[in-house]
Amino acid sequence: MASLILNKQKESELEKTVIVIGVARSGTSMVAHMLDAVGVPMGDSLSLGSKEDLELSKLVERGSMGPELEKLIQERNSKHQIWGWKRPMAFKHMNWLHENLRNPHFIVTFRDIPAIGMRRMMANESEFEKTFSRTVTQYEMLVLYLYSMNFPLYAFSYEWAVRQKKSFVEDVLGFLDIVPKPELISKGADSIQLGTNQYVKQFAENRSLDVEETRNTGTLRLGEDKGEALKCNVFLGLNISEADELLKYLSNRRPFDKPEDRLNSEEFLFFNQWNRNTEKLLKEKKNVHIVLVLGDLLSKAADRAVGKSLNLKESIIMERSWKRLISDAEYPMLIISHEKLSVEKLRVLRELSQFLKIKIRPEALKLKPKTRRFNHMHWLEGKVLKVEDGRVYGWYKKYKSSAKPVLILKEDGKEQERIEVELTDLQKGKQHFEFSPNWELFNEGFELWTEEGMRLKNAKIKK
User: What pLDDT does residue 64 have?
Assistant: First the structure.
């Protein structure tokens, strides 16, 4: 899952306030730039790189609704139907925001913790172990706030957003009830520029650094390597197939030919989590080296949520276990950001090669940046069963989301209506649905398409 909408309003209201929140360094500035590009006013006294309204932030941090703040909010409301404010840690003032801002709509960023920690490490010149621990703690706070919220919220994976820019912009526009015109989508997508925006340049100038120095490689080594021949390499955070995909580029043979070889190998071990049993097992191994690959909480929670409800709290528990592993620093460790792995695989492979002391295979040098595959393709297949008394009935398979699926109604190739369908019964793996279209929008009829661009079977429906 790349994104998630919670508490969506049943009836659209044009007037709203957009609040961009998340852990610091998790992509809130990227969202603020995008909103500004699509025409959502983000404030009058914006910081140069991060698009944060310094005047509003300063007043809110005081923690009370004084005359000055009340006047500022009233001015924004009178000038704009919709306006926004970006403040990463504003979720600490959630109750205040709900009471004092007009129809608040929250956009929440989720980014993998190694990427955040490495950025924070450069910004604050502090140790990675401390930045990682602090980031996990702040995500714990954020998730608790999200579960207590009852107003509209759009949460998304930063890694997905920067790789699928137009889909991300379309999602946000839909959430805010802004008509997704092609030129608007293009403007929003063009505003998402990684590593070259003013934010990075400003950060580098403030610390007398070259811009290239501010771009982290996506990997970090911890612990002491004693220089002995490696006996046991442990992969954490990746499933076996993902780890195997990496390792095939690092030796003259595939690491394992059979599943049982993976389980019995003395050279490689794979674990999805770090717990007491894992620790006990590794105590019996010699010269353990750990490769830890971490993605963002939202994507990991969605990966585990197939067939059940999404549980971000479970992801937080996992992050706590990684925090303990990193703080103990008992073994030599290479930490890899999944975000960087998906964008710069060759660069990460070189780091992995040096750490494991295994040569890169020649074909790895031809690797190009590749987009990570997310569970964003909700529909595997779908079919219209009948049209009766003005309602459309059908079924679909493989919808991986806690939100209701959305269908697009097109006439002559042009979108006329989007409908969040009503779910009924589940029969033999097929989820049945029904909905009532606004027939007045159509001249002759329409075709049914999913948001992912898939046309349903029997999708052509006459008026």
Answer: 61
Own/partner contacts of 449-455, CB < 8 Å, gap of 24 or more, are 449/407, 449/408, 449/409, 449/410, 450/378, 450/379, 450/382, 450/405, 450/406, 450/407, 450/408, 451/378, 451/406, 451/408, 452/376, 452/377, 452/378, 452/379, 454/379, 454/381, 454/382
CATH topology of domain 217-366: Rossmann fold (3.40.50)
The pLDDT value given to residue 8:
77
Backbone torsion region of residue 36, taken as left when φ is above 0, otherwise alpha when ψ lies between -120 and 50, otherwise beta: alpha
Q: Do domains 3-213 and 217-366 have the same CATH topology?
A: yes
Higher pLDDT, 304 or 406: 406
Count how many residues are written for the chain. Answer: 463
User: What is the residue extent of each domain of the chain?
Assistant: 3-213, 217-366, 381-462
Burial class (CB in 10 A: 0-12, 13-18, 19+), 272: middle
Burial class of residue 383 in the structure, from the number of CB atoms within 10 Å of its CB (0-12 exposed, 13-18 middle, 19+ buried): middle
* Closest by CA position to 135, among listed 372, 340, 297: 297
Residue 39's pLDDT band (cuts 50, 70, 90): very high
* CATH fold of the domain at 381-462: Immunoglobulin-like (2.60.40)
> What would be the CATH architecture of the domain defined by 3-213?
3-Layer(aba) Sandwich (3.40)
Q: How far apart are CA 48 and CA 36, in angstroms?
A: 13
**For residue range 90-100, what is the model confidence (pLDDT) as tens digits?**
877 777 777 78
- Given the DSSP bridges, would you call strands 406-411 and 445-450 parallel, antiparallel or unpaired? antiparallel
Q: Cβ-count burial of 10 within 10 angstroms (0-12 exposed, 13-18 middle, 19+ buried)?
A: exposed
pTM, rounded to two decimals: 0.69
pLDDT digits (tens, 9 = 90+) for 254-294: 555 554 454 446 677 877 778 888 888 888 888 888 888 88
